[in-house]
Amino acid sequence: MHLQIIIGSVRQGRAAKPVADWAFTHAKQRDDMTVELVDLKNWPLPMFNLPKSPAAGDYEDEQQQRWAKSVERADAYLFVCPEYNHGYSAVLKNALDYVYAEWGRKPAGVVSYGGVMGARAVEQLRQVMVELQMAPIRNAVHIAGVHQKIENGAFSGDQRDADQLQRALDDLAWWGNALHWARRTSH
Ligand SMILES: Cc1cc2nc3c(=O)[nH]c(=O)nc-3n(C[C@H](O)[C@H](O)[C@H](O)COP(=O)(O)O)c2cc1C
Q1: Is 27 in contact with 169 (CB distance < 8 Å)?
Q2: C-alpha dist (Å) from residue 99 to 59, 65, 127, 165
Q3: How far is CA 54 from the centre of its chain?
Q4: Structurally, how many domains does the chain consist of?
């Protein structure tokens, strides 16, 4: 079961990176998954402007093909995503829109933060995941006071954050394994 933790903010001084590093450290300690950090800062995809809908599947653009290969590698996703103006980040929406089938039939969870602990961003993201035929998990990680927990570029989650992350990772492992085998044995 291969998990990708996708960093959904490219803002200078973003909280998303230290939070994603923290989630990565926890996930790496588990023996039921392999884990990879995918930083959208390293994927400067243009705003989607290609002629065909990615749902059609025949990707002609070279960057789109490379992004599809990266997305395809995972059995499950954990998005680390801020709340911007009561929604989730535009950079993450663009990355989601860029390909289609590679996301499908895979579980996804969200780590978020902000005034209401990212609740609105998480709910919006779930709607989009369904359209991409992903399986959104129930247990999200809603971090309170994220900036107070970052020191010298490192995030230290409290016990509540760690418990929520563990529940999310447990769900992703269960669904990730189940759907990994289901994708291989049926169409
Ligand atoms: C464009 C913008 C819009 C924001 N809108 C919200 C918001 O609607 N709700 C909220 O709780 N925080 C909001 N914030 C504050 C963010 O939660 C905070 O800046 C957080 O650190 C952003 O995540 P990042 O540092 O990983 O980019 C906003 C920040 C920005 C830059």
Answers
A1: yes
A2: 8, 9, 17, 27
A3: 19
A4: 1
For 44, the token pair is: 């400067």
**128 CA distance to ligand 1 centroid (A)?**
20
Cα 165 to averaged position of ligand 1 atoms, centre (Å): 21
Atom of ligand 1 nearest to the CA of 85: 8
Range of the domain at 60: 2-185
**61 Cα–ligand 1 center, Å:** 32
DSSP string, 37-94: EEEGGG--PPSS--SS-GGG----SHHHHHHHHHHHT-SEEEEE---BTTB--HHHHH
State the CATH number of the domain containing residue 144.
3.40.50.360
46-76 pLDDT, tens digit each: 999 999 999 999 999 999 999 999 999 999 9
